[in-house]
C-alpha cells in the first residue's frame, strides 16, 4: 500500500517505503491482516472476565442485553476500559518503582554505577516530600527521599504526597470535589481489578471514577517518580 495512505508522518512514510522494499513485516501489515476487526471487541461489549463467559451484548438490541452475571453493555465496556487503565498504570508505575529501588541502592552505596549527579534537583524534589535538607549530606537526603517515594506505592491511609506537592491547587480542588484524589499507587490499580471482578462493581460511572483515580495515581505518582528520579 502507498505509505502516504498508511501514515501522515513523513519519517514513518520513509520507513514504510523501506520495509516494503525489503519485505519486513510491520504493525501496519499486521493491522491490515486483522481487518475487519471484531465489532464486539471494538465496541467493548464482549466480556471474558470470568469463566462463565465469554459473554457479549447485541449492540442492535435484538439479542442479549446482559451477560450471564447480569452485566449490561455499560458495565462491560466500563470494566474493559478501566482494566486497560490498570494495565497501563501498572506498567508506568512499576517502572517508577524500579527507578526508586535503583535510586535507593545508589544512595546507600559508594560503588554503585549510578549516582546523584544533580544535587540541586535532589534538594528540590526532597523539599516537595517535606524532607529536611539544611545541613544534611546528599546521601542522607537521597536515602530519605527513596524511602518517601517507595512508601507512596503501598500507602494505606490518606492520599499521595505527590498529589498535594506537585499539581496546582486549583486542580487539586477539582479532584477533591470529584472524589478522585489518588490514595496510593498500587491501591488504585488493585482496586480496579477488585471492582471489575464478577459480582462486584456494576455501576459504570463508579467504575470509570476508579479508573480516573488510577490514572491520577499513575501520572502524579508512579510516572512522576520515574521522571523525577531519572
Ligand atoms: S463477568 Fe459476567 S459478563 Fe463477564 S464473562 Fe462473566 S458472566 Fe459473562
Automatic annotation (TrEMBL):
Gene Ontology molecular functions: 4 iron, 4 sulfur cluster binding; anaerobic carbon-monoxide dehydrogenase activity; hydroxylamine reductase activity; nickel cation binding; peroxidase activity
Gene3D superfamilies noted in UniProt: 1.20.1270.30
GO biological process, one term: generation of precursor metabolites and energy
Keywords tagged on the record: 4Fe-4S, Iron, Iron-sulfur, Metal-binding, Nickel, Oxidoreductase
Iron-sulfur among keywords: yes
Record keyword Ligase present: no
Xref: Pfam families: Prismane (PF03063)
Residues in coiled coil: none
Protein name as it appears in the record: Carbon monoxide dehydrogenase
Amino acid at each position: 500500500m502507498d505509505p502516504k495512505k498508511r501514515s501522515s508522518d513523513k519519517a514513518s512514510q520513509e520507513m514504510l517505503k523501506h520495509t516494503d522494499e525489503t519485505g519486513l513485516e510491520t504493525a501496519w501489515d499486521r493491522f491490515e491482516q486483522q481487518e475487519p476487526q471484531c465489532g464486539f471487541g471494538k465496541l467493548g461489549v464482549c466480556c471474558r472476565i470470568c469463566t462463565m463467559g465469554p459473554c457479549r451484548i447485541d449492540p442492535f438490541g435484538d439479542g442479549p442485553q446482559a451477560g450471564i452475571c447480569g452485566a449490561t453493555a455499560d458495565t462491560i465496556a466500563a470494566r474493559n476500559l478501566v482494566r486497560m487503565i490498570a494495565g497501563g498504570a501498572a506498567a508506568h508505575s512499576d517502572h517508577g518503582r524500579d527507578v526508586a529501588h535503583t535510586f535507593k541502592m545508589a544512595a546507600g552505596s559508594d560503588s554503585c554505577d549510578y549516582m546523584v549527579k544533580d544535587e540541586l534537583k535532589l534538594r528540590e524534589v526532597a523539599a516537595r516530600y517535606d524532607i529536611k535538607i539544611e545541613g544534611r549530606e546528599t546521601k542522607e537526603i537521597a536515602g530519605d527521599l527513596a524511602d518517601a517515594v517507595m512508601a507512596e506505592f503501598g500507602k494505606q491511609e490518606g492520599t499521595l504526597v505527590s498529589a498535594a506537592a506537585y499539581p496546582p491547587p486549583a486542580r487539586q480542588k477539582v479532584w477533591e470535589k470529584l472524589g478522585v484524589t489518588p490514595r496510593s499507587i498500587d491501591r488504585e490499580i488493585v482496586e480496579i481489578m477488585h471492582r471489575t471482578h464478577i459480582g462486584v462493581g456494576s455501576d459504570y460511572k463508579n467504575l470509570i471514577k476508579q479508573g480516573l483515580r488510577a490514572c491520577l495515581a499513575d501520572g502524579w505518582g508512579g510516572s512522576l517518580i520515574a521522571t523525577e528520579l531519572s
